[in-house]
Amino acid sequence: MLVKKKSTLFNFKDLIVYFLIAGTGAAVQFVAGSFFRNYVDFFTSVSLGYIVSFVVGFVLTKMFAFDARNTNKTRREMVKFGIVACISFGITVGFAALTLKILHSSDPNDYIYKIPYGIIPEKYKDVNVTEASSTLVGMGLSFVSNYILHKTFTFKSTGFYDRAKAALHLGRD
């Protein structure tokens, strides 16, 4: 007789693995966003960093975080991952913007930290600590919502995809 193992929302092993995977995605998002910040405004850089990390996040999360490597439901998981990503995008950008607004309301000055780089010691990269802190707040809140939504929706059979597919008359999975 097979006994189905009860899954809890905050399973320690899943949480640790997800933290490592999401940390990798967050690092990609932060580095990409920092790169784009050299060329575009703050909100666009946060958005572009999030988009770049989306692909990395899906692959790593499917492969390692929730034991969904061999489910043969990649299309359905990708659609659900995209839905969660849209929610998470709103949380990331929304809370980064809200945090920046709160920080600017208490002190309108941005704190800039100069990091030396290159061979010439006089070369510095300006890091806007105020914007970076705001981005990290948005990313942190997104992390929590992503874990819960991926665990309970993306990589779990909920019937949502089948109902959506029937409603939209999509092709086979």
From TrEMBL:
Keywords per UniProt: Membrane, Transmembrane, Transmembrane helix
Domain GtrA/DPMS transmembrane: start-end pairs: 18-108
Bilayer topology term: Multi-pass membrane protein
Source domain of life: Bacteria
Subcellular location(s) per record: Membrane
InterPro entries: GtrA_DPMS_TM
Sequence intervals crossing the membrane: 15-36, 42-60, 81-103, 132-149
Pfam families noted in UniProt: GtrA_DPMS_TM
Name of the protein in question: GtrA family protein
Source organism per UniProt: Runella salmonicolor
